[in-house]
Amino acid sequence: MPQTIAFYDRVDHALHDSSLQTALHRATTRFIGNRAGAIGALSDADRLRDQARAIRAHALAHLDELLPQLAANVEARGGHVCWASDGEEARRYIIELARARGVRSIVKSKSMASEEIHLNEALEEAGFEVVETDLGEYIIQLAGETPSHIIAPAIHKTREQVSELFQQHLGMPPTTEVPPMIRTARQALRQRFLQADMGISGVNFGVADSGAIVIVENEGNARLSTTVPRIHVAIMGIERIVARLADLGVMLQVLARSATGQKLSVYTSLISGPARPGEEDGPEEFHLVLLDNGRSRILGGHYAESLLCIRCGACLNACPVYQAIGGHAYGGVYSGPIGAILTPLLQPDLPDAYLLPQASSLCGACQEVCPVRIAIPDMLLRHRADAVKAGKFNPVEKAAITGYTLTMTHPAIYNAGGKAGRFFSRILARKGRFRRLPPPLHLWTKQRDFPALPPKSFREMWAERKKQRRSSS
Amino acid sequence: MTTGHRRAVLFATCIVDQLYPTVGLAAAELLEQQGVTVEVPPDLLCCGQMAFNAGFRDDAYAVAGRTLEVLRGKGDVVMPSGSCAAMIRHLYHELFAHTPFAGMAAELAHRTYELSEYLVDVLGVTDVGARFNGRITYHDACHGLRFLGLGAQARALLGRVQGAEVVPLPGCDQCCGFGGLFAVKQHTISTAMLDRKIEAIASTEADLVVTGDVSCMTQIAGGLSRRNIPTRARHLAEVLANMADAR
User: Fold this and answer.
1) Which residue in B191, B182, B232, B200 sits closest to B22, CA to CA?
2) A249-285 confidence digits (pLDDT tens)
3) B43: in domain
4) What's the rounded Cα separation, in Å, for the pair B222 and B229?
5) N or C, which end of chain A is more exposed by having fewer CB within 10 Å?
6) Quick check: pTM over 0.90?
7) Which residues of chain B lie closer than 8 angstroms to A469, CB-CB?
8) Last residue of a domain, one of B79, B102, B121
9) Shortest distance, CA B191 to any CA of chain A (angstroms)
């Protein structure tokens, strides 16, 4: 099959983008340090992570009971529930609702689920004005880009680039100081909150036994988006559920500490339905969109564990590949290690999605920081096996593996191959190393030397040593 | 120190066999010093990780299945590689699941050890009489670190090397970028990761950067040599067996 190069192009572009490299290095270093401090400060971090995993595993195992329970509780409190099997159904529900209620202007707080279904484009196409209110999301909306990190969507931007955007779009006087930049964004956004007819949010956790949705944030924009406009629509992936309100004690701790290194996020909102009669604050209507979009299919297969994910982003920060190429290079909605698992599953039509699980050295740093201990490397390996089964591999690699297998299952071939290798090495290597090797190994020697082969293999030397010992004893 | 009744198979791994025979000899020497009778089965070649990691599980099954067969009934298996030991301990389970060899794979996993782990945790030795006059820094190879929980063993062993000044490596648990075929298939990412590793190593001004996997060692040595940095990359076994200068 033809080698898809779009992914490699994006990787090369990222590796040569010095602003991106600066931004990524600054941000991931800070995130890693903050997380390590916050997790390290816990005396029982391992136990807490085990509990978090157990809570999530329990929820996934009982989705068939918990989702109807959540829906029934939301409806009992006057909310509406949309069961959306895919993005199309979710988009249609939201657009029809907005039309029916005469909505013109919409504010959004951060939601990866809405990114997943490309909601903004659909809403704009339908004639609505949509404004992202999370600062990072707002920045990339101005730039016409997509999030490159689950919790820090504009992580790829330097402060200098943000300043340019604000000068261009918001008429901000030139500055790279953070406070005036934030003031500028706040002033622009405050208008939007007050004008908006509808607020759209994501959901960090849906709580089945209370019918509440939980949103954590640090800016307060989600709280405004969900209370000021007369309609609140929350979009939740069906797996983002916990059984009991009491589960939040564990989940909120591991989420905040893993994501930003905070003990708790600045704002934790529990929202259960619209404003009740007599209440002054809150929307008139509350709608919860339960988005499947491929998740129930994942649940039944050998990637089910990936649905434990609580979208903290810790695996992205810890991943040396993400650190090197950033989120956009992955080409899917979700990036980093968890994105390399989810993108081939959620966006199977992306032609180079199968390459993402190969863009990993399998170092395991992701699994080490995952608050729910998802075995990410194991799942990347399964993806690689599934790609091979589906015929998605490079023919050169296939040939190399066939040769490898033949060699490693036949000692005679192995020995002859070793001898041949050492023969060529004697002729071609200089000063104990190769500075250049023939294709495809030239990819190794582009920036690395390769050692010359020794005169004898270990097994040959061992056999000689044994013979000597026998004759000398 | 244990008595001389212990026997172990030294599974040198294919890379050590073909590229770094001194690592195999050093490992054998270390085991023999501790009274272990070392066996090197002539037909023991490879754990199958390369095919497994590339997604070619049928190929991995063929290679690993043969290795299971060769190691059947052999007692302790010691490997100078955290990565290959992790393949047997951690991934054979998945490779042989639902096959007639699942039981054999589980049994082999229980008696397979990485070298530093075997020396420290099984044989209970940290001072192996090694000597090195110079500065040493240690890189944690990922699979040993994260899938076998190693790191303390190597540091304990290095801490007893006479004459050596052991200095910490900044970002010692950051991947060097090797990752098997990843190093070639995604060579630009691999070498970007290597650049950071080399920078950290250079900052220590160490004479030796020591690690427990020859695959990482090949990546790191290749980077050091291309950039003309005088620090040499050595396997832990070579240092411990006083063979750091043997190649």
Assistant:
1) B232
2) 999 999 999 999 999 999 999 999 999 999 888 999 9
3) yes
4) 10
5) C
6) yes
7) none
8) B121
9) 7
